[in-house]
Design a protein that fits this description.
Glutaredoxin, 115 residues, 4 strands, alpha+beta, 5 helices
Length: 115
């Protein structure tokens, strides 16, 4: 089993995900979104399951800085905005095969590993 985690190192939720899998000795591939942005294809995978609006962290500092509070965009434009501005993304995005979660979904991660 290998898990892919998208996030930033300074995010407490991302650190929580990394720690959860490390404690269970599950191999993780961490993608720091400040070093390498998530591809549109990867973001689409999450948007297909949850919807593009669910990927946006409307409580983030960067969301406010960009003045997006009253912005209405199509799903495709939101995905492009998320690819360009990873700090407005809800973190972490966690993927194991076709299984996906947004944020700290510890109960779902436990189901993945059968514990």
């Amino acid at each position: 089993m290998e898990v892919q985690i998208f996030g930033v190192k300074k995010s407490a939720e991302t650190r929580k995900a990394l720690r959860f899998f490390a404690e269970r000795r599950i191999k993780t591939h961490f993608v720091d979104l400040l070093e390498r942005a998530a591809s549109l294809g990867e973001l689409r995978r999450f948007a297909q399951k949850f919807g593009a609006a669910q990927l946006v962290d409307k409580e983030s500092k960067r969301f406010e800085e960009l003045g997006l509070r009253y912005t209405q965009l199509s799903d495709e434009r939101w995905l492009q905005k998320l690819a360009d501005e990873p700090l407005i993304l809800k973190m972490p995005l966690v993927r194991q095969g076709n299984l996906l979660t947004i944020g700290a979904g510890e109960s779902q991660w436990r189901e993945w590993i059968g514990k």
